[in-house]
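Proteins fold reproducibly. Consider a sample protein:
=====
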Amino acid sequence: MNPHTPPSRPVHGPAISALMVSFQTGPILWQALSAALAEPMIGEIWLVDNGNAPEVLQRLESLALAEPRLRLLAGEGNIGFGRACNLAAARAGGDLILLLNPDLLIQPGAAAQLLGALAQAKSPAIIGGRILGKDGQEQRGARRDRLTPWTALVAASGLGRLERLHKLFRDPHREKDPLPDAPIPVGAVSGAFLMMRRADYLALGGFDPAFFLHVEDVDLCARAKEAGGDVVFQPSAIGLHSGASSQASSLFIERHKARGFALLFTRHAQTPWERLGGMAVAALLGIAFTLRGVARDWRKRGWRANAPAASSSSPPH
């Protein structure tokens, strides 16, 4: 940890502590911080530096000295998204925590909308916002059904196109559904943009550090529901997502995504058959994700060795 990191201080006024994790996020990071600092209900922002360039870290340190609401955690190295969030949540001074991707611009009033839905939700509660891309369309991940080996296979294979023929092929990603007029219960929301009571987060143990990158949000939502809590999508809370902005290796990211699915299916299988099916589907997804990562790296940089890095500024979790 950076020796100049200030200790946690009580948050006066709105008790919302925003948490960000950044690894080589790019210029969008400064816009994301500006948007969060412009939100009056956010009392503090904890930014975990998972390995930005020295000049970026220096700029963050200068900003933290000038902006009393910004708290910087650095020097731990790339410890993964979930572990970094846990590190920040343990130090946060607010009663509420708001997870924000470092390439997501929270829109005015979104924090209040999330808070309003949280006030009506049963603990341990997780409230996710609506995530829009540059084209103004809702992105995948912000509202999902419960993820099972079969529904994950449907989503990955494109079988969701057959949903009109039979509900068996229902895609777990529901961003194309009509926008609800009010908050609705869902199976999972995105870790790129969610609010929780800090006490709930800590009671659940936060993100499972076994998930280095991706799927940790689905696991957290599953554990909250298993504990009797609510997982809710709040359509009125908007965040603008720029898309993947990190220089991290796609192959490395895709491999961790595949590993995350394997962990998820193993830990949340409700029957022996679902556990067995999960192992098989995870193996298939591992092959598909690996090939996709290789193809993306080829297109980005040509066939070169991939740097062992992970990013918190990937597409919504």
User: Anything to note?
Assistant: The beta strands are 16-22, 42-49, 70-73, 96-100, 104-106, 126-132, 184-185, 193-197, 231-241. Residues 272-301 form the longest helix (30 residues). The longest strand covers residues 231-241. The radius of gyration is 19 Å.
